[in-house]
Amino acid sequence: WDPCPGEAHLDALRRSIVIGRYGAYGDVGTLDESRRRFNAHISGATTLPPDIRGVAFNLVAQVADRNTYDALWALEKEATLHEEKVRILGALTRAHDKALLSDLLERSISEDVRIQDTPLVIVQTANNTEGRDLSWDFVKKNWDELNRRYGQGGFAIMRIVGLAAGFSTLERETEVREFFETHDAPSATRTVQQVLESIRLNCRWRALNLESVGSWLARRTK
Known about the structure:
The chain is mostly helical. The protein is built from twelve helices and no strands. It has helices at 9-24, 28-43, 50-62, 66-78, 82-92, 98-108, 118-127, 132-141, 143-150, 155-162, 170-182, 189-219. Helix 4 runs antiparallel to helix 5 (82-92) and helix 11 (170-182) runs antiparallel to helix 12.
C-alpha cells in the first residue's frame, strides 16, 4: 500500500493494479485495509495519496453500507476538482448493494450530478454485474429525459444505448429491439444495430461454451 523509497512510476502503477485486483476478487485482508485507510482519510488522520486513492475508493464502495456510501457522497460534494468528483462517482458505481446502486442511478439525473457526468454513472453502473439490469431498467424508465438531454449530441446517447450490449439472452435481445422500435434514437441507430448483434453473439457464445466452461470451473472447485 505504501510506496518504497525511490519507487518508479511503473512500480506505483503496478502496486495500484495488484491491490485493485486483489480487492475486486474479494480478498478480505485487502478490503479490510482499504476500509481502514479510507476511514483514516475521511477522519482527517491521514490523507490517501493520489496514486492509491482511486483504488481505495473503489474497494470501499464495492462493499459499502449506507454509511460508507454517504461518506463517499460527502467527499464528492467537498471535492473542488472535477477529476476528483469523477473518481468518486466512478467508485460509487462499484457498489454491490443494489439499493445503493438504485439510489445512485436516481441521483445521476438530479442536481447531485453534473449533466456531462450522468452517462458515466449510468454506463459504469451497467458494467457492474449487480447493476446491469438496474441500469437498463433505469434507461427505459427515464428514456424521454435522457433522449432530451443527449439525443442530439450523439456520443453520450450512444454510450447509454450501448450498455445493453452486455446482455446474453434472446429474451433480452427481443426486449431491447422492441424498445427501440417504439422509442426513437436517430443519432444512435447504428449503435442499436450493433447492440442487438452483440447480444446475439453473446447468446451464441453461451450456447457453445457454457457447458464446457462450467465443467472446467467445477473441476477446480472440488
